[in-house]
Structures are given as structure tokens and as C-alpha cells.
Specification:
Oligomer: single chain
Shape: globular
Number of helices: 16
Radius of gyration: 22 Å
Mean pLDDT: 95
Largest sheet: 5 strands, mixed
Helix content: 25-40%
Number of strands: 14
Structural class: alpha+beta
CATH architecture of the largest domain: Orthogonal Bundle
CATH topology of the largest domain: Cytochrome-c3 Hydrogenase, chain B
Number of domains: 2
């Protein structure tokens, strides 16, 4: 079955294939131009496991849904030898349900959920890759870090100062958010969605709200869609400007650091003016909003962003003209286009390597459906490319917001829709809800049971794929370059460790 983003379908209309046909069909779909997997998971039934695979095609703009049922003790054939990016999904399914995937190169743990299949697997016995050699040594960093960084372990295999291999082990404080999203009131689910990754509040909240609206048959008016799209772009601008500051800090360029910190503050303070929270918590709600935009706020958004972007462009031009800065950014931490495709990278990390992957263009949602979004692309795949990608996307978000505001001014007098925290969801439904957060593709998958209650909830933050991109980027680099390389991705520990 081929469906569109944020479209709810009856599970009974999905054909469940034999596992042999399932493997053949999914492999065929993944081989299509512009195709990549957005979700692959298992749902436990009374006497079997149902496997669902959602494959988004960026050319045809649809999501292909394939499904099969297997017994609890059955094995599955791995997709990984032909489609490397599927490794993380299969490892997760194995960890949760014990399914063996034939020919998977390494079914090592992804996280350590409390209800994992094999409780003998713990962070203490994680099977790190090792190379036996008198000329090599290992360097371990974490899981405990300075400051407020969440737990994660980085194991480097080095020859002198050069990194030959980096393995990243996460999942030290699994929060169980996916489980909590079942059986609690809608308002509680909404609050949980805002905490999946704190710097992506709007992206995840919007994915949840959009799924709920699709499954309850609700269509947001243009005014509400415009307000949500503006909030999403404000979030993108704030984080990209903040990341520019962080990159300047890591190379001791204090002028760029403090200037961008101040500019980020203007953007997040604009969100606070809008909804009372600098990270936009409370702004996105299903079926409506508690903070409708008025003319005063529109004028303030225009004023603040005009000042921010003008000053940010000055700083960016300075950064890109200083040889000492460019020397630290160029040809460092490179991920090639081929590596980005094979690793399944998404969002900024993918686009900086030349991979055109952006849900706003390929699987549009909210007001992006009425906007012709041109994907901004860089090609070198190094730290400089990821910095330039941020600079381009700030400018692009500014243009999008101005366009959204122009359209919103035509709708400003229309009534605002109010939130509904008790929506009646259609029974036996499946919905894939995609948004384009600042890191990349966010996917929430929701299934309801025969009474219309949510029986399964699956979340994918772009960090699930992009952490592996960081591991690729640091190969053959000096270990002292790891901090700046890590910062250029700025991935989420908590978004990975749901």
C-alpha cells in the first residue's frame, strides 16, 4: 500500500505478505531512486509478531507500507547486506523481541530498555569492536561527561593521534517514552512529545499533533497551519544560530561565539513572547492553539528576525572570510555523498553531503503543502559544509517565515481553532507522521486498536541515523579534532535514547 504523509489508513486494508515476499518487496522498494526507510518495527500480538516497514520515496512523494507476520521464534532475513541503513532498525527489533536476522553483520544493542528481550545484555558487557595490534591503542570517553551532557560512551581505536575507528554506545538511561505514549490521556502524550528532544520541541510536538488529527479526521485551517510552520522555522533558526556560536567557541573565535549567542537569544525570546516559553512548549496542541497570532506579534516577529538575520549574515561573512577559521573547518570530518546514502543520514547532516533529503519538499505537511520548497544543498560534507548549510538554512527559514506571515495576514481576522484533548480516534488505524525538524526527519508512527485507543507508538528522531554519520566523519582524523566534529553534527542523546 502506498500512502501519503499524515494520512491514516485501516490496518485491515494492508496485505500481510509471507516473510519471503516481504523481504523481496521491501528490497525492491528500497532500491528505487529517492527511497529510504522511515520506520521498521515489530508489534507483539497474542501469538505472533507483526512487522511493518514504511519506505518513503522522495521522488513519488509517498510512503510504501509493507507488512508480514511471523512466529515468536522465527528468524528473518536481514536487509543490511544490500541496504546498510537498515542495520539500526534490525538491531532495535532484535533487542526488543529477540528476532534473529540472518546475515546481519552485528546485532549489537541499540539501547537497554527495561523490557528488552535479553536482560543479560547490559552496558557493562557491550561488545565493542576491537583490533588486536601492538601499534594501536584505545581511548574511552564517557559515559559520564563534564557539564550537562547526557551519558554516552565513545570508544576510539587510534594509531598515534589518528582515529581509525569510533564506536558510539548510547542508551544508558532509557526513558521509555514510547511505552508511556500508550494508555495516558492526550494532554499527557502532548507533554511527553515535547520532551523527546528538548531542542526539537516544535518538530516532535507537531508530529504527534498531526498524527492525532489525521486519526480523528480533523483538518487544521490555513491559519493554524501557518502558525505551526512559522514556529517550526523559528526553532530551526534558533538552533542553527546557536550551533554557529558553539562552533566558534570550539575554535576560540570569541566574537562569533558571543554575537551568535546574543542573536539566538533574540529568536528564542520571540518564542517566549508568543507562548511564554523560549523553547515553544505549549505552542503546538492537537486541533488548535492557545496562542493565536495577532498583528502585534506579527510585527514583532518581523522586527526581531530582520535584526537577527542582518547581524547574523555579517557574522557569517566574517567567519567565512577568515583564513584561520577556514583552516579549522575545511577538509575535516568529511562524510561523502555515498556514505550519507548508505548510512541513511537525514536532515542537515545529509544535505551538507549533497544528499537532497528534506521532508518539507518530499513529503510536505502543514502549510508546506502549499509552498514550493527548494532544498538547500552543500556538497563537500566536511565541517565547513555543515556550517555553510546552517547559514543557508537560516536565510531560507527567514524567507519562509516572511512568506508565511504574508499569507497569515490574510487570515488574521478568522477564528482560531481551540485545542481538543479528548479526540475520538478511528479504530484499527495506522499513521506515519513526518516533520522536518532542524536536525532532520522526525517520524512518529501510531497504531490504534479496535476501540480507537493508541495501542502502539513509535518515535524516530534523526539522531537515530546521524550518530553513525559522526562515527564515519572522525575516521582518519586526529582525536583532538573530535570535539569540533561532534559539535558540527550536534546530535541528541535523549532523542536517540527514547
Amino acid at each position: 500500500m502506498r500512502i501519503k504523509n499524515n494520512i491514516s489508513v485501516d490496518i485491515g486494508s494492508i496485505t500481510f505478505l509471507t516473510k519471503t515476499d516481504f523481504h523481496a518487496r521491501v528490497s525492491e522498494r528500497l532500491s528505487e531512486d529517492g527511497a529510504h526507510c522511515v520506520a521498521y518495527f515489530a508489534v507483539k500480538g497474542d501469538d505472533s509478531l507483526s512487522l511493518f516497514c514504511g519506505i518513503a520515496n522522495d521522488v513519488s512523494h509517498d510512503i510504501d507500507v509493507q507488512a508480514t507476520r511471523i512466529g515468536f521464534s522465527e528468524d528473518m532475513r536481514s536487509f543490511v547486506p544490500e541496504h546498510n541503513s537498515m542495520h539500526i532498525f534490525e538491531r532495535e527489533i532484535h533487542e526488543q523481541h529477540g528476532i534473529r536476522f540472518e546475515n546481519h553483520p552485528w546485532l549489537k544493542p541499540v539501547r537497554y530498555p527495561f523490557d528488552r528481550y535479553d536482560k543479560e545484555k547490559t552496558p557493562d558487557n557491550y561488545p565493542f569492536f576491537a583490533i588486536e595490534s601492538d601499534e594501536l591503542h584505545e581511548v574511552g570517553v564517557g559515559p559520564i561527561h563534564a557539564g550537562i551532557i547526557e551519558p554516552g560512551h565513545f570508544r576510539f581505536i587510534c594509531e598515534g593521534e589518528k582515529v581509525l575507528h569510533l564506536e558510539i554506545a548510547l542508551g544508558y538511561q532509557h526513558r521509555g517514552i514510547e511505552s508511556m505514549m500508550q494508555g495516558v490521556p492526550c494532554i499527557r502524550k502532548m507533554l511527553l512529545s515535547e520532551t523527546i528532544a528538548g531542542d526539537s520541541t516544535v518538530a516532535h510536538a507537531l508530529a504527534y499533533a498531526s498524527a492525532i488529527e489525521a486519526m480523528s479526521g480533523f483538518v487544521p485551517r490555513e491559519k493554524l497551519q501557518l502558525e505551526r510552520s512559522i514556529a517550526l522555522e523559528l526553532e530551526r533558526m534558533a538552533i542553527h544560530i546557536g550551533d554557529t556560536s558553539a562552533l566558534c567557541l570550539d575554535i576560540a573565535y570569541q566574537l562569533g561565539q558571543v554575537a551568535c549567542e546574543a542573536l539566538r537569544t533574540i529568536v528564542i525570546n520571540t518564542l517566549q513572547l508568543w507562548c511564554g516559553n523560549r523553547f515553544a512548549k505549549g505552542l503546538v496542541r492537537p486541533h488548535g492553539t492557545n496562542y493565536p497570532v495577532n498583528k502585534l506579534l506579527i510585527n514583532k516577529i518581523r522586527e526581531n528576525l530582520s535584526e537577527t538575520v542582518g547581524r547574523y549574515n555579517e557574522v557569517a561573512a566574517k567567519i567565512l572570510s577568515l583564513p584561520s577559521l577556514l583552516a579549522r573547518f575545511e577538509d575535516l570530518g568529511t562524510v561523502t555523498l555515498e556514505q550519507a546514502k548508505r548510512a541513511g543520514l537525514t536532515g542537515l547532516s545529509a544535505r551538507a553531503s549533497g544528499l537532497e533529503r528534506d521532508v518539507r519538499a518530499s513529503h510536505p505537511f502543514q502549510y508546506y503543502r502549499q509552498t514550493e520548497h527548494k532544498i538547500a544543498i552543500e556538497n563537500s560534507g566536511d565541517i565547513l559544509s555543515r556550517l555553510k548549510q546552517r547559514i543557508s538554512e537560516v536565510e531560507q527559514s527567514y524567507a519562509l517565515i516572511n512568506g508565511f506571515i504574508d499569507a497569515l495576514e490574510q487570515e488574521i481576522e478568522t477564528d482560531s481553532q481551540t485545542p481538543n484533548f479528548s479526540p475520538l480516534l478511528k479504530p484499527n488505524q495506522l499513521c506515519f507522521s513526518l516533520t522536518e525538524g532542524w536536525r532532520g526527519e522526525v517520524c512518529h508512527t501510531v497504531i490504534t486498536n479496535s476501540s480507537g485507543a493508541i495501542s502502539f507508538y513509535k518515535i524516530k528522531d534523526p539522531s537515530l541515523h546521524n550518530w553513525f554519520g559522526l562515527a564515519l566523519a572522525i575516521r582518519n582524523q586526529d582525536i583532538s579534532d573530535f570535539p569540533i566534529c561532534n559539535k558540527s553534527f550536534n546530535l541528541s542523546y535523549c532523542g536517540f535514547d527514547l
